[in-house]
Amino acid sequence: MVPSDNAAPPLDVDRILADPGVRIVVCCGAGGVGKTTTAAALALRAAELHGRRTVVLTIDPARRLAQSLGLTELDNTPRQVKGIDVEDSGGELHAMMLDMKRTFDDVVLAHTDPAKAAEIFANPFYQAMSSTFAGTQEYMAMEKLGQLHARGEWDLIVVDTPPSRSALDFLDAPARLSRFLDGRMLRLLLAPARTGGRSMFSLVTASFGMFSRVVQKVIGTQLLTDLSGFVAALDSMFGGFRQRAEQTYRILQARETAFLLVAAPEPDAVREAAYFAGRLRAEQMPLAGLVLNRVHQPTVAELGAAESRAAADRLATAGGHESAVEVLRAHAALVEQAVREQQVAARFIDAFPQVPTVSVTAQPADVHDVDGLRTIAAAIGRP
Question: Considering all CA atoms of the chain, what is the largest pairwise distance in Å, rounded to the nearest integer?
Answer without folding.
Answer: 98
